[in-house]
Task: structure prediction
Amino acid sequence: MIRVLSVIFFTAAITACSQTVDQQADDYVEASYALCGAKVKAFSKSDDGKIRVICQNDSYFVVKNQSTLAYMQELNGAYCHGKGFTVFSERKNYFTFTCTDDKNFNIPK
Result:
């Protein structure tokens, strides 16, 4: 498990050189709880700011930016009781998501 985390942190550091290693670690921890509700298999951040996450349960998310990730954490707590998402998509005017307990939501931005 430590090897996997090391690879993830190394990959994240390479793809987003403008952030410090500590910031990348914070982003990883946020993603693990904001999106998955538990463990993350893979985490990366591209130069354009998009964050890609694959969860232990094979859920996959692409988050457009850091502020969306922060808002997802709030949505997870308020609507999914911290259990995470199986599906999350950001549309022009809405966030549409399904919690791990199969509850569906369409929340205006």
